Amino acid sequence: GDSVTQMEGPVTLSEEAFLTINCTYTATGYPSLFWYVQYPGEGLQLLLKATKADDKGSNKGFEATYRKETTSFHLEKGSVQVSDSAVYFCALGLIQGAQKLVFGQGTRLTINP
Amino acid sequence: DVKVTQSSRYLVKRTGEKVFLECVQDMDHENMFWYRQDPGLGLRLIYFSYDVKMKEKGDIPEGYSVSREKKERFSLILESASTNQTSMYLCASSWTSGGADTQYFGPGTRLTVL
User: Fold this and answer.
1) Which of A29, A56, A72, A79 is 20 to 30 Å from the Cα of A63, by its Cα?
2) Of B101, B58, B43, which is closest to residue A32 (Cα–Cα)?
């Protein structure tokens, strides 16, 4: 079935470090891909998305490129800040009536000053 | 801004009680969703609805039911709460437009069943 696998956490980095959170997926058809972020005590909010192969989503200094050949959508940021500390979820979107999302297990990121 | 609200942030119930979790969205979205979030498991879809009075089972519907009598409101019902339903419950909503639409999430309800 359709699934998303994320890099195991937790991940701890120092401020200004380079961040990569790996995400790979298995899907029938051609899903859209998303990264959501959950800050402490809040619900999820969309960070970025890509709807077709080779698309790059970007927001707040984060980027991810839809790689069909490797079925991946890795999240990257060149210089992280303490305020980026959160849980990050990779998800794929399936068109089945409503737009269902299948989520990865989440990666907790902590940035130390 | 899209706003999705949930009736409670924290809820404590006893085993066997009937529990209602309410979700309201203010953007006239067709689709609404209920997820539960557990550590290490990500978000799992319980039920979703693509129109008033319409509902479909998600991946883990057992022990839950839903109601959507008005477009803006989607209720999750635990008919007889059990301790294994202790979890964070998240509601979301989205438009239908043929592409992959962003889901907008509420802040969540942390339910503890004793």
Assistant:
1) A29
2) B101
